[in-house]
Amino acid sequence: MERKRILLCLAHMSGREMDYIKEAFDTNWVVPLGPNVNGFEADLEAFVNNREGAEPLERKVVALSAGTAAVHLALLACGVGPGDEVLVQSFTFCASSHPVTYLGATPVFVDSEADTWNMDPELLEEAIMDRIGKTGRKPKAIVPVALYGMPYRIDRIMEIAAKYDIPVIEDAAEGFGSRYNGQVLGTFGKFGVLSFNGNKMITTSGGGALICSDDESKNRIMWYATQARESYPYYQHEAIGYNYRMSNICAGIGRGQMTVADGHIAHHRHVQALYKELLKDVKGVTLHEAPAEVFDSNYWLCTVTIDPLLHVRGEEKAYAEVVKGAVGGAAGVTHATESAHTALEPNRNVEAMRIWLNDAGIESRPLWKPMHCQPVYAKNPAYTNGVSEGLFKVGMCLPAGPYVTDDDVRYIVEQIKEAII
Ligand SMILES: *Cc1c(COP(=O)(O)O)cnc(C)c1O
User: Fold this and answer.
1) What number does the ligand 1 atom closest to the CA of 199 have?
2) Domains of the chain by range and CATH?
3) What's the CA gap between 338 and 164, in Å, rounded?
4) Distance 34 CA to ligand 1 centre (A)
5) In what order do the strands lie in the sheet with 285-287?
């Protein structure tokens, strides 16, 4: 029997999605508003406001067309505009920083700490003081990112943010349902970003949401997301808005997904625990884990680092071929490349492991390349300590998610062992 290909993180339906979509058609709500949008927002509010052993919070949620749109509107609502600076975790996917540039502002990158892989609070404070010294102005926002679901050190980040009075926009796109000290990520800062892209913890095929502090801020975000219209019998515009609201069809998928969200998270954690057990004795391959119990990761993706001294089959041929097409689920058009190399790339043994696993029917991926190492951000200020660059060279993501069975994890670890010389 042929093995199925094991993908990094595949969307998994609950079976309820079609009921909500059908209802939208039956009631003729095939538009970017409606009962599913309201219902999905209510479900999300209940989910993010839940606290272990404490009274629920009262945060509000706006459903949007993408997580990227949520980042964009959060920045806008924090008053980010041309000439401003925003402090962004460098070790992230580009959607954390690109919207800063949409507003004519400059992302200033902050490197990570070694244990969480997320924004280093000490470096953050250094960056704030240095930017004030150099520009005479405070950065307009701080954007920490829950990379692969791992909580950032939010208690320290909030302390520093309060000291300098700078709003925090939590990018919890990968950290849906992760908790710090029992509280769901995205509910600590002024805003919290969620994503429901096809490969995230739950999906709406494409979509996102912004967690807001109160009703007033929710209304303001909703207004910006629906072209900023004034109340007249005709179109009257006094500000620039965006078409960022979630459609009622996508929200129907989201409502179905919310019935299995807890199950998905539990499964990701289960897969992580199984990797831990099976990789325990594999020398040179280290599973990335939460540094302490307060960091309650959803383990959206399971990640490992590979000792530079470990030898992997085929490493002499790694990078021999130019890769066709880009990494990532969104597909679309990518630029063809002439050279197989860039200025900073994963070690040969990491690339050889990726190729080995790929040939065995297993999708894996290098860690996200830090933004301060991306050519498009070559001129941006960056406060670095070598952590994210170091991790990018040695790390990789392994399959997780509801479709990955215990047997799959055993097979993946077997193949990892097989690849090691
Ligand atoms: C996926 C993601 C986003 C936003 O994603 P969309 O694809 O626009 O929904 C933002 N930040 C990070 C870190 C992400 O991984």
Assistant:
1) 1
2) 17-260 (3.40.640.10), 262-419 (3.90.1150.10)
3) 46
4) 24
5) 285-287, 302-306, 395-398, 365-366
